[in-house]
Amino acid sequence: MSSNDHSAATESAANLVTPEPGATQTGRPGRTPLQYPRRSLRAVLNSAVAPILFATAALFLVSWIVEPASVGSGALLGMLPFAAILAIIAMGQTLVVQQGGIDLSVPGMVSFTVIIMTVYPAGNPSKLPAALAIVFAGTLLAGLVSGIIVSRIGVTPIVVTLGMNALLYGAVLHTTLSPRPTTSDLANFASSRFIAGIPNTVIIAVALTAIVGFTVKKTVVGRRFEAVGAGLFGARAAGLETRRYQLAAYVAAAALYCIGSVLLAGVVATPTLFQGDDYLLPPIAAVVLGGTSLLGGRGSVVATAVAALFLEQLNQFVLVSQAPQGVQLLVNAAALAAGVAIYSVRWRRVISNLRTRSKGRQDGVGTNTDVGVQAT
Fold first, then answer.
1. Residue 68 lies in a domain
2. Whole-model pTM?
């Protein structure tokens, strides 16, 4: 062994025996108390939530400067329940999109749930448990059927979910033609604020976001779920049962749609037969703005929930500005287009191609100039 190698080995052994300042007794680099906030902040900045989180903060700042009424206490308490409901529904859409699909049966799911939750009890609180059983059974069955057709038979998700949406709306119209006011107990639960003045809908949305996010990101099942969405052929080669995860996505999404719709039935005084039409585009926009690719794969339900808050505040800002309702639809469409442009377009490749073309043109101009000078 050379003298250099011997000295290096001796120094390494000395480091294990005598830790450096800030190192633990196990020889691993220690962390001072000030390093933990730095690591947490760095993790947030590098996470998928960072872009939409900063955009939401900027939106609230602009709203406070331009339209202060849109961020007042009354406005926020009126907006937050709808943001929570949109977040829950959009999380379900996120699970489907992560498997490379898209669920267009959301409007039917929402309308079916809110109508059953209001018409069946007819103001009688004792019938609410039965109504809950009916809506959960109906939506889960719809999600199961859609999942089986997509995963087992291989029909395109758009076709399957559009057909399911029509069936659910048919069930709604067959149930009643005259909507009824929501039951008082359900309205009280949805509008109550038991913890620190925070609406129950927001607490439920935060809890569901934590549960779904932890399941997808921190469990073996969740990681396999993302792996299947990222590539079917690779997942099959790894021995994963891809159809099982695709089916689970539609069933879990249906459960989330149902929970959000039950809360919506309590928030809205008298829901309409087509209440779900308001939830066709916004959940997809929230999914895209949250950074989930429409081609499937990795996604973040936390980012989707923050995007739902962004969209609801944006809608409130437009309404307080006394803009027409058509402008609100255009804003949702613009948000969806922006999300697709930001996350789906490979900007590095576009910029690289533009630079290559620009450089090629400059080289071509220089060559022609040189030729002209030589000819002269």
1. no
2. 0.79
Number of domain units in the chain: 1
Q: Backbone phi, then psi, for 196, in 5-degree steps?
A: 55, 30
pLDDT at residue 25 above 60? no
Q: What token pair was written down for 333?
A: 């469409």
Please give the structure tokens belonging to residue 91. 């999380």
Which own/partner pairs from 240-244 qualify as long-range (CB within 8 Å, at least 24 positions apart)? 242/151, 243/151, 243/152, 244/151
pLDDT of residue 373: 44
> Does residue 176 sit within a domain?
yes
**203 within some domain:** yes
Establish if 127 belongs to a structural domain. yes
Asked if residues 310 and 289 have their Cβ atoms less than 8 Å apart, the reply is yes
Q: Which domain holds residue 184?
A: 82-304
DSSP string, 267-312: HSSS--TTGGGGGSHHHHHHHHHTT--TT-S---HHHHHHHHHHHH
Radius of gyration of the chain (CA): 27
Give 75's contacts (C-beta < 8 A, 6+ positions apart): 69, 316, 320
What single-letter DSSP state applies at residue 219?
S
3-state secondary structure of 198: strand
